[in-house]
Amino acid sequence: MAAQVEIELDNGEILDPLSSSSSSATDSTILLREGNQEHDVITTCFLSGLGATLANATTIVTIRKKSPNAITTRAKSLAFRIFTEAMARKNNGDPNVKYGWYAGSREDLERIVTYGFSSREIDDDSSSNGIGIHLVPSKFSLFAAEATEEDEEGLRHLLLCRLILGKPEEIGSGSKQAYPSSVEFDSGVDDVQNPRKYVVWSSTMNSYILPTYIVAFKSPRLTVIRNGGSPARLSSPRVSFAALMLSLSKSMDTFRMNLIIRTYDDFRKRKIQRDQLVRKMREVAGDNLLAQIIRNHRDKNKRKFYTCDA
């Protein structure tokens, strides 16, 4: 049996993802309630990374944890410990285990928790720092939150993962590197001294990443924040992209719908900005159809919209 490896968040807090909690052995995740140590540590870590202003306008709705009683969870956790110990032996006792955020829809994150990462999550955009799975350090939750999108219930979702980084190497923006440059290195970062992006190569993504917690939150003031700016003023009713795509799928042919879905997927992977996504949707769907869907959605669901003063 592999020895227990002490893991801590980047802010110094200690977590034990295999601590006992009441759940059915068939549950894939369990709900962590307020007052639970893990719940409170993750809440503090997430909100502190948003900054005071945005944190005060953000509410964590649920935190779910991969069920420790599921046999697959135990098997994956054991494998993760074994890889952690192997990395420690390789790097003079330091496996360099961190926590990182990954953004996605609730369905995507639940799938990752159940089955692991797949080629769909691999970031290979021309402006990315290498080809692999890109995650955000736990203390920079704002950067991960910016990549989230509201669902029809107004919820956004993030996945908190344990990562084995070993010895990372700096990967420049636009790099097409897809594996370590030498046996000396194990992962990638955008900046060795102050990383804001972790890169785990596809060859080790399901060995060096252990998806553990799904955080659902509401943050009405959160928009795409460019160049360190403040949340933009929201002055008109809004429809989530997920709800908009559902309506579009009822009015458009498969070819055009697939174009929008691929663009939306690029946005969720942080390959393109929000304005690029909107521009593509207008180009493919047309302003008339989009305007009609928004009007219908507003008329039927007025209570779901809001106006927010920054």
UniProtKB/TrEMBL annotation:
Domain RST spans what residues? Answer: 232-303
Under SUPFAM superfamilies, the record lists:
ADP-ribosylation (SSF56399)
Listed A to Z, the keywords are: Developmental protein, Nucleus, Stress response
Q: Which Gene3D superfamilies match?
A: 3.90.228.10
PARP catalytic domain spans which residues? Answer: 16-238
Would you name any one GO CC term?
nucleus
Which Pfam families does the UniProt entry name for this protein?
Answer: RST (PF12174)
Subcellular location, record wording: Nucleus
Q: Does the keyword Repeat apply?
A: no
> Has keyword Nucleus?
yes
Q: Which domain of life is it from?
A: Eukaryota
Predominant location category: nucleus
Q: Which GO terms describe its molecular function?
A: NAD+ poly-ADP-ribosyltransferase activity
The protein depicted here goes by the name Inactive poly [ADP-ribose] polymerase SRO2
Organism for this UniProt entry:
Brassica campestris
